[in-house]
Each structure stands twice: as structure tokens, then as C-alpha cells.
Amino acid sequence: MDALLFVPVRADDSGGAPAVVRTARTGAGQERVGLAFTGEERLHAALGPTQRWIRLSRPALLALLRPLGIEDVRTDPLYVGPQMPQMPELPASTALDLRAARPVLAGARRHAQWLPDEVW
Questions:
Q1: For residues 56 and 4, is the Cβ–Cβ distance under 8 A?
Q2: Cα-flanking dihedrals φ and ψ of residue 65, to 5°?
Q3: What DSSP string runs through 26-92?
Q4: How many whole angstroms separate alpha carbon 101 and alpha carbon 25?
Q5: Distance in angstroms (rounded) separating the CA atoms of residues 96 and 55
Q6: Sheet holding 52-57, edge to edge
Q7: How many CB atoms lie within 10 A of CB 53?
Q8: What angle do CA 101, 48, 119 make, to 5 degrees?
Q9: Is the pLDDT confidence value at 1 over 70?
């Protein structure tokens, strides 16, 4: 038996609508894929703490996705979204005023492993 995965969904807050499984694209213009996570903390790290989810096995998720032509499920993608903004290149002699009232971008360069797609 396959382990149950955490599958992100979107649900209507009006109360009666069923949950809708979220899909993504691996890149601009690429095929859609299903999304699944092995833990709730991984799902929330990728999609935020308010992301709703349901528990499904991989075969059950694929059975839902196949009628839409989706044959692949990405499990535990590391980062979701467009490429992170980058710090502009500055000459070595330029001093930065860290107290200035503007955003500071730091950290390693990050790339999207997949891009969010409209739900079906």
C-alpha cells in the first residue's frame, strides 16, 4: 500500500464546494504536473502556512489527474514560485548603508523548481 501524501488543494470558503487539487508547471509553457508532499511541514514550507491539503495515495492522485492529461507528480519540491529577486551588482568600493529604509536581499540565488498553475 502506498503511503498517504499531503496534496495541496483549493476549496471554496462558502462551505459546500469540494476541494480542488492544485497543479503546477515545471517551467513556462511546460506540461502540468501534480503536487504532493511527504509531510505537512514540507507543504507549508513550499506553499505557505495557510495552504489547505488532503491526504491521498500517489495512485489515487494520479487517477484524479490522468483525465486531465497529467501523468507526472512532483513530490516535495524545494521551492515554489518565480526566481527570487537578486541583489544588484555594486562596485567593490561602494559602501552599503544597511540602515536605509529599503529592502535588503540576501541569501543564495534560488530558482523555481516548478511554477504554480491554475487549479482545475
A1: yes
A2: -85, -30
A3: SSTTPPEEEEEBSSHHHHHHHH-TT-EEEEEEHHHHHHHHGGGT---EEES-S-BSSPPP-PPP--T
A4: 36
A5: 48
A6: 20-21, 4-10, 52-57
A7: 20
A8: 120
A9: no
Place of cell 501534480: 34
pLDDT at 97 over 70: no
Q: Grid cell 511527504 — which residue?
A: 38
**Are the CB atoms for 80 and 113 separated by under 8 Å?**
yes
Span between the terminal Cα atoms of the chain, in Å: 27
pTM higher than the cut 0.90: no
- Give the pLDDT confidence of 51-63 residue by residue, as tens digits: 899 999 999 999 9
Torsion region of 5: left, alpha or beta (phi above 0 gives left; psi -120 to 50 gives alpha):
beta
For the chain, the average pLDDT equals 75
Q: What is the DSSP letter of 93?
A: T
